[in-house]
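Good morning C.,

I know you're traveling, so I'll keep this short. The sequence:
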Amino acid sequence: MFNSASNQTANVLTSGDFTSADEPLRLFGAWFEEAKRAEPQDANAMTLATVDADGMPNARMVLLKGFDEQGFVFYTNLDSPKGRELGQTPKAALVFHWKSLSRQVRLRGTVERVDDAEADSYFGTRPRLAQIGAWASKQSAPLESRMAFEKAIALQMARFAVGSISRPPNWSGFRIIPLAMEFWQDRPYRLHDRLQFQRTTQDASWQRTRLFP
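The tokens, ready to paste straight into the viewer:
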């Protein structure tokens, strides 16, 4: 599902003054392609920030599993804190930090669940043991011991000894639909470049603003 920019576009957007870019998703695609070549591990790692029922913020690292014009997708146990929080307040923020490139991308927007067909399709691409783990783990719930978890894994491995493994009903994906995106590039002496894009709705045009560092 990852979209990749053309080599020509990537060259334009990753060299010289990126603040001339007029569309954030194409710029993100170019930066992401470069990050996948430069980062030693998990270029798709991102901080996901949500809020709980009391308005207390919560942040954790998750993995981007796809992005396109519709938004940025990750998967999780729906009974986890992030799953419950996004169900209650369908708004979120993401941060990508590519240290090897001295770059950062921030975005904020609304959130929606992916449909069952999309979740099923992605779940089918996961390694078999990862599929087993999705059934065995009560994500973020108290765990008596590592042995208890390994027992739960063994039980699910016996249950799914043959055949394909279906997606658990409480495991799915969320799509963050960005309404604001900011691109940050390190410069010497803290004289960084920052470019912000904003829109009022998913279908509205992006407005570009260059920011002081």
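Safe travels,
E.
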